[in-house]
Write a structure and sequence with these properties.
The protein is mainly beta and 129 residues long. The chain is built from no helices and 10 strands. Helices cover 0% and strands 52% of the residues.
């Protein structure tokens, strides 16, 4: 994991719902916490953000971009001071091979590829019922 020296903060929201049949909605937030605007170079079109769900031991269960190829398109986005972006997707609670994920505790992270490298959100615990 590479950290940016720029004033960017990543955070991941995840709602695992109350029912085992509900998908998990995840939203990756990136925000400019600095006092001046920055230009952020994002890859892919649409933006190739990733969401990763792992077991507590680090074994990957699901990755949003598993098996896909993201085009190496660079898109510059200007973020004013305090401004942010959101990227959302839904995990259907199946693993990378289409098998139903059993109930339990999992760790989710958001990943944002940029021209400066990969930015990763802090881990978020998901409890699947």
């Amino acid at each position: 994991m590479r950290r940016s020296s720029r004033p960017l903060v990543l955070d991941l929201d995840a709602d695992s719902g109350d029912s085992p049949d509900e998908p998990v909605r995840m939203t990756l937030h990136v925000r400019n916490t600095g006092a001046t605007p920055i230009s952020l170079g994002l890859t892919g079109h649409p933006v190739a953000f990733d969401l990763v769900v792992s077991r507590a031991d680090g074994t990957e269960v699901w990755r949003r971009l598993h098996g896909s190829v993201a085009p190496l398109v660079l898109r510059l986005v200007r973020l004013e001071a305090g401004q942010g972006l959101e990227f959302s997707d839904i995990w259907n609670r199946k693993d990378n091979w289409g098998r139903r994920t059993p109930p339990g505790s999992y760790i989710a992270r958001g990943v944002l590829p940029t021209e400066d490298g990969l930015l990763t959100s802090p881990p978020r615990t998901l409890t699947l019922r």
